[in-house]
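Dear colleagues,

As part of the handover before I leave the project, I'm documenting each prediction I ran so the next person doesn't have to rerun anything. This entry is a single chain, and its sequence is reproduced below.
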Amino acid sequence: MRWERFFDDLEDQLASEWEAERAALDTEAERLRLSRVVLRERLVALVKRDRSTPSPTFEFTDGMIVVAEVSGVGADWVGLEPAEGRRGAMLAPLGSLIGVGMQHPDLLRSARPDDTRSPLADRMTFGYALRDLVRRRTAVVVHLAGGKALAGTIDRAGADHFDIALHEPGAPRRADAVTGFRVVPFAAVAWIRLDGHAAL
């Protein structure tokens, strides 16, 4: 009888050790998986979040904090639809984000992004999105990382910069309304507001 109990104890001990080892491996595998998740994937997961809960907050290099929903994500940018006020859609380079605040369920869900990736979205760079604004002749307000804002219409978008014709916010771009021109590096942009247009 004592031998049976002894073997049962050994069996239980071995099972406990196996469970502890498997838990350690699972923990390490999870750490490894999380080490490969990029911010872009977490933002993509927010596109389909439950919008009956409070919206995430986005903080930018110019100090602006916006409560918004993610409406689209490109290769290196995020499109936002502000939850408060009538500010118009926003476009921001991922590098201009300082932080994203969200509810705990969204935080956990975004840490497990879908494996379904869009090859097209992966190729849609910030420059690509700006070239679409050029084609549409969309009036914008460009907020720079230093806190300054430039209102106008983007005339051209290069590989790492764009040209903007300055004019009154919301006004159409007409030669007689243009007050100046600026060349703006992408790296200087905190975020861009698109006046009166749907989200990206």
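The mean pLDDT is 85. DSSP finds five helices and ten strands in the chain.

All the best with the project,
I.
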